[in-house]
């Protein structure tokens, strides 16, 4: 439904987004990851038609954003960064305004407002003025705005920013639920969120896509992922484990004849889980003393850190 | 057109949800009437006419008050970040521009309508021609709309309402001063005689020159066209500024 090709954005001398391409299909939730200033928001602004790209194309449900912006924007719901709102309106009149701009009038308008208010738990502040709302409510009001016309495509720029843990959980669940019927792109720098809600993730760094895959795939690419950490006391342990068919090699931090401390890496055909099982079985057979036998799955944030660079780390 | 109306409604009620509109309406009505009686010598002129004592002051009030009404049009959108919301809605930019401008324009229509007691007074005191009064009202409204259009354009360049206000006042002031006869004469005298045509041409482009023509009771198509083109140009500049902020 979303097709982005070779998108590029240049501000003066600075290249903010460089040759970014991706597609999002119906039923997919795409997590957009990257350090601050990596170009996440700029990309989203181009996808939603707020910024004109320097080069490249954006197609929304087959409609070109540059050639036919009004048509393309119809099927998008967009939550901009920092959730901007008109501070002089009440929650319901703000949602009514957005509904009207989406072409909903009369009964359809009231129904859309009620539905959006229910979805985002805004019943308590329905008639409250926007500038008296807490940050969490402001954020959800803007989120409600993006859902008001039940769009096929949702673009959410940091949808859980400023929410408390309960609200974060609710919003994640909402995204996951809606993701079954829509195409959703959301950006975040909370990595657990990606595992909780995404079917796919893209990592972007300094304007370029540096990784694209399911959260599980990305986790496995983390340094040291899918290996088995072992501390075993027993004579000849190292030599025997190395001989196992599923073990590629052993990286030992300390080993002598009577003990092994280190990591066992699986072969390409095997998995860390299998290696752990085999070592466990062997240890039982040989009656080694096992102090640690741990399958390291790999963490998304380790992978993230290994391929991106923040300003502070540079 | 529905979208223009939606934008208009939000902007218009926005004026009346805050004190801005009320303060400006009250100041305008009080000042317009006050100047008429205290500085315009309305009662001493011995003539049931509004041309000089009442309408003469309007341009000077607009120079300050029109930017006060218009300064938030786009600056506020930038400051709140809501421009991003507005420009990702399935509407054309011109619909937003027109809707917002019309909202500010209607505020000024209300301001002018509220000056009705002076018209009533002049009819009570004498037997004036309604024609010149109406045409002067049209002229005055054109002046207000032009100052508003200038402010609208300036506000599309800055997120600061204060900067927008100061620059708009300065532009409106210049466009008024260069239309004043004594100032034109002084400039012509100071420059070589070959420049006279240029100065007169610039003076012709100023608001005040056309305003005087119209308040004399001559509702000339030429002057109406002049004000409409000023407004059209300013709204086009607005569109261009908004576009350039997004690319």
| CATH-defined topology of the largest domain in chain A | Rossmann fold
Provide the succession of SSEs of chain A.
EEEHEEHEHHHEHEHEEHEHEEHEH
Going across the major beta sheet of chain A, what is the strand order? 6-7-8-3-9-10
Q: What is the helix tally of chain B?
A: 13
CATH superfamily of the largest domain in chain A: P-loop containing nucleotide triphosphate hydrolases
- Overall structural class of chain A, as computed from helix and strand content, comes to alpha/beta
Named CATH architecture of the largest domain in chain A: 3-Layer(aba) Sandwich
Q: What is the arithmetic mean of pLDDT of chain B?
A: 89
Instruction: Provide the number of structural domains of chain A.
Output: 2
- Mind summarizing the main beta sheet of chain B? none
Q: Tell me about the biggest sheet of chain A? A: 6 strands, mixed
SSE string of chain B = HHHHHHHHHHHHH
Shape type of chain B: globular
List the helices and strands and how they pair.
The complex is a heterodimer of chains A (314) and B (247).
Chain A lengths: L1 E10 L2 E11 L4 E5 L6 H8 L7 E6 L2 E2 L4 H6 L1 E4 L11 H11 L4 H14 L15 H13 L5 E5 L7 H15 L3 E6 L2 H7 L2 E6 L2 E6 L1 H6 L6 E7 L3 H7 L3 E10 L2 E8 L5 H15 L2 E8 L3 H8 L7
Parallel strand pairs in A: 3-8, 3-9, 6-7, 7-8
Antiparallel strand pairs in A: 1-2, 1-4, 4-5, 9-10, 11-13, 11-14, 12-13
Helix pairs in contact in A: 3-4, 4-5
Chain B lengths: L1 H16 L1 H20 L19 H13 L1 H9 L1 H6 L5 H21 L2 H10 L4 H26 L5 H17 L3 H10 L5 H9 L2 H9 L5 H25 L2
Helix pairs in contact in B: 1-6, 2-3, 2-6, 3-8, 3-9, 6-8, 6-13, 8-9, 8-12, 8-13
